[in-house]
Amino acid sequence: MHSPLEIARNYVDVGIHKSNLSAFKMVLLGIFAGMFIGFAGIASTTASSTIAVSSVAKLVGACVFPAGMAMVLIAGSELFTGNTLIIIAVLEKKVTIRKMLKNWFFVFTGNFIGAAFVAFFVVYGGTPELFDGQLANSIVAAGAARCNLSFMESFIRGILCNILVCIAVWMAFASKDVPGKLITSFWPIMVFVVCGFEHSVADMYFGTAALLTSVKYGIAAEGLNVFHFLFSNILPVTLGNIVGGAGIVGFGYWLIYLHQTPYTHNSVEEEQEEIDIAEEY
Known about the structure:
This protein is an all-alpha fold. About 80% of the residues lie in helices and about 0% in strands. The chain has 13 helices and no strands. It has helices spanning about 5-20, 25-50, 55-65, 65-75, 80-85, 85-90, 95-125, 135-145, 150-175, 180-195, 200-215, 225-255, 270-280. The two termini are about 15 Å apart.
C-alpha cells in the first residue's frame, strides 16, 4: 500500500503524463470515460426504478453506480472530475496552467460525447420500455430533478461530489492491485450517489437521456429543457466539481504532503514503480 505522501508524489508524475497527451488521445480517452459513466448511470436507474421505497431505491442505485468508476480506473480512460487533481502537478511547477486547462477542455468534451452516445443508444435501443415503461418515467424524473435545482444548489452539490470522487481516486492510488483499487474506490462513489451530490459527467448522461426519452415517449416534465440542462445543471455542477477536486482535495493534499516537504530520493525500484503508475493512468 502506498502512503499518502507517496500518492501525492506519484500524482505529480500522473499529472505530467496526462497533460502531455495529444488532444486526440484526450478526447478519445474522454469518450470512453463518458461511456463508462453513462453505462453506470443507466444501470443504477434500471436497478432502482421499480423499488417503491425511495431510500432503498437510492441505496441500490448507489451500490451499482461505482461500476462506472471501476471501468474508468482499470480499463484506462480520462475523466474530467478526476483530472482536476492535475492541479497538484501545477502547484509543483511540473505542469503549466495552460496544459492543465487544455486537458480539462478536451477531456470534458470527450466525456460529453461519450455520455451522450450512451444516452442516445439507450433511448433509441428501447431500454426505457423496460418494466412496462416505468423505466422511461424514472429516466425522465432523474434528469428533471437535476434541471430543477437552483444554480447554487447544483454548485454546492458539485463541490461535495468531487471531494468524494477525488478521494476515491486518491484511495485507489493507495492500492497496488486491482481488487484493492476496486474496493477502496467503491465507498466514496457510493456515498456521493446516495447523498444526491452532483457529478458533471454523470449529469451529461442523465440530462441527455431524460431529454431524449421525454421527446421519444412523450413524457413531459417541468423544467426539463436544454437551457436548464446546460445552465442550471452542467455549468454550476462543473464549476463545483472544479472547486471540490482542484480547490479542496488537490490543493489541500498538496499543501499537506508536498508544500515545503523535503523530497527524499527514491530507489531505482521505487522510481520504476512510479513510472509504471503514471503510464497506467
